Amino acid sequence: MWHQIETFVEGLSGVSDEETLFTRLEAIAADLGYPYYAFGSLWGDPAAMDAHPAPAVRLNYPPDWISHYFSSGYDKIDPVVSISPYAQTSVTWDELRPFRSDFFDEAAGFGLRSGISIPLRAIQGCYVMCLATPEAKTIELAERVRLELLAHGFFSAYLRARKLVKVDHGLSENTIKVIRLSMAGLSVAEIAERLELTSDGVYWCMKDARKRLKCANQAQVHLVAIQQGIVAI
Question: Rounded to whole angstroms, how far apart are CA atoms 157 and 15?
Fold first, then answer.
């Protein structure tokens, strides 16, 4: 399994489109005994879910289960969705089962009997990778670690390929430059010198950014600017 994962991750270095990424993910997951996967954005990146109802970004779960899941409102009570953002590391579905045993029993009836959910975090938001199998099995620690490496390797490639749609908030070119330099830790005086502005001009740009992006402070401005593709690092 180690060699398969290593080959998979190394092979993603030149991939620049999401479709190829998910095709390769589906193939290696099946080779490892997990023919089903779901990759979702739990918060922070709503544009990622254009193709499927939230929180799914991409998945190949059985169509009958997908239809039943969303029509039943399970996205509101799914322990994977509610607990994964707070998990420090991966959680198996055996560990999540006590929270909603009836939910997992239903999923098993559709062929999703055992699985693992791996939280993935970036400044854009919190995501989760689920890998599932129709087999009843206990996922031991060694296998969990390998699947975590697979998920994190995929996620790094996904972030490189992810095309964030820039949202136009009417920010001036100078304001965007101020945001970028502020993120880099430059002081107001340093930003003013770099951009040939007055200190008052820099403060005005910062105030305008907070107003237009609806942020309470500069740290929030930095986060929203990254999430919405206004500034790229």
Answer: 7
Domain tally, the chain: 2
Amino acid residing at 124: Q
How does pLDDT run across 147-202, given as a tens digit for each residue?
A: 999 999 999 888 888 765 556 788 999 999 999 999 888 999 999 999 999 999 99
Q: Which H or E run includes 115?
A: strand 114-122
19, 129, 131, 173, 215 from 116: Cα distances, Å: 23, 8, 6, 45, 36
Phi then psi for residue 120, to 5 deg, are -135, 125
Give the residues across from 114 on adjacent strands.
133
CA 185 vs. chain centroid, Å, equals 26
pLDDT in tens, 23-55: 999 999 999 999 999 998 876 555 554 555 555
pTM of the predicted model, to two decimals? 0.73
Which one of 161, 184, 210 terminates a domain? Answer: 161
* Containing structural domain, residue 187: 173-227
Question: Backbone phi, then psi, for 118, in 5-degree steps?
Answer: -120, 110
Q: How confident is the model at residue 4 (pLDDT cuts 50, 70, 90)?
A: confident
> And the tokens for 9?
């991750």
* CATH number of the domain that residue 121 is part of: 3.30.450.80
- Alpha helix stretches (DSSP H) within the chain: 2-11, 18-31, 63-71, 79-83, 93-96, 101-109, 141-161, 173-183, 188-195, 199-212, 218-227
